[in-house]
Design brief:
- It is a single chain.
- By secondary structure, the chain is of the alpha+beta class.
- It folds into 4 domains: 76 residues, Arc Repressor Mutant, subunit A, CATH 1.10.10.10; 38 residues, no CATH class; 75 residues, SH3 type barrels (Roll), CATH 2.30.30; 81 residues, no CATH class.
- Helix content is 35%, strand content 25%.
- The strands form 3 sheets. It has a 5-stranded antiparallel sheet.
- β1 and β2 form a beta hairpin.
- The longest helix has 18 residues.
Length: 325
């Protein structure tokens, strides 16, 4: 419960999802509780609960027809929920999902004391592992990205020997390959991919390169003195001189915040989010906006040309299409 007189804590999207996941089985189990009972149980206002119920009415599985959605019924001051028939089917995990559960359970068990670690969690992990045909304490090998082994080895050697390297690199933002001389200072893994942090002589500044976009590495005779002073606490540090753009994204476009480095990410009660990011290439932003279509809107930008970038790109594509007919 919230403390009287205290400033209300900002509710994040994760908080809201966790609350709704708890509300559903509680309402089902209590078979028609009153709205006030639900609000009191989950420390939520009546207005917010109504919003949550409105979202839950649209939860289901493809093709999202009425028979595949959660049925929410509000009569007077009471609320009922019924699961769609599809939710009554036993849950079947893929081998990958089962392995992820075993690994997560083992990791969580390491944080518990001996008594709790050998309790229900250990039993559940052992049962899932038995179905998969593995031992719960088997070692798990994690393979990151599709980086070429010789590329990764050469970059690591350049870091340890402080040797300059010449790389053949594909830039996603510019959709082009180029040859660059870099001074690699750190090779590290982040979010399932390998990266190399280096001083780029082409840019004249520090840059971050995705190792899986490096096609070839040649170690040069020149050596260098490290500039950065060791590993960083942050992964992406955008050039402060780059223009920024703020996008309003529909819930279905939330993947943008998880795919690209963003400097600000705010999620509203309706699931829409506003993200602010640096724009290193207008072409990259143009492609992203065209891909998102009506799911994204530019609400603020340092460069005024970004405001109608998507519509101008769409008109060019349409004109080219019409010309080809």
């Amino acid at each position: 419960m919230s403390t009287p007189g205290a400033a209300p804590r900002r509710t994040t999207a994760s908080d809201r999802v966790a609350r709704m996941l708890a509300i559903v089985p509680w309402i089902v189990a209590n078979d028609g509780p009153t709205i006030d009972e639900v609000c009191e149980r989950f420390d939520v206002s009546r207005r917010q609960l109504e919003k949550d119920l409105g979202v839950l009415m649209m939860v289901g599985v493809p093709p999202y027809t009425p028979d595949t959605l959660i049925d929410v019924t509000v009569e007077g001051d009471r609320v009922w929920m019924r699961f769609a028939d599809v939710f009554a089917r036993p849950l079947h995990l893929t081998p990958e999902q089962g392995l992820a559960l075993v690994a997560a359970g083992q990791a969580a068990g390491e944080l518990l004391d001996d008594e709790k670690a050998s309790g229900p969690l250990a039993s559940a992990v052992a049962k899932v592992a038995a179905v998969l045909g593995i031992a719960p304490d088997d070692a798990i090998s994690v393979e990151l990205g599709d980086t070429r082994p010789d590329v990764l080895a050469a970059l690591r050697r350049a870091v340890s020997q402080h040797r300059r390297a010449r790389i053949d690199y594909y830039s996603l933002s510019r959709d082009a390959r180029s040859t660059r001389d870099i001074d690699p200072e750190e090779v590290f893994a982040h979010a399932g991919a390998w990266y190399v942090r280096a001083h780029c002589h082409t840019a004249g500044a520090e840059r971050l390169f995705r190792a899986d976009r490096v096609y070839a590495v040649d170690l040069l005779d020149e050596t260098f003195m490290p500039r950065s002073g060791g590993p960083r606490d942050t992964v992406f540090d955008a050039d402060p001189s780059l223009p920024r753009v703020t996008l309003e994204l529909a819930p279905s476009a939330g993947w943008v915040a998880e795919t690209y480095p963003v400097e600000r990410d705010e999620v509203g009660d309706d699931g829409r989010r506003r993200v602010t990011m640096a724009v290193a290439s207008t072409l990259w932003l143009e492609r992203l906006l065209v891909r998102l279509g009506p799911d994204a809107r530019v609400v603020a930008a340092d460069d005024r040309s970004f405001t109608d970038l998507a519509s101008r790109a769409a008109r060019r594509v349409l004109a080219r299409y019409r010309g080809a007919r």
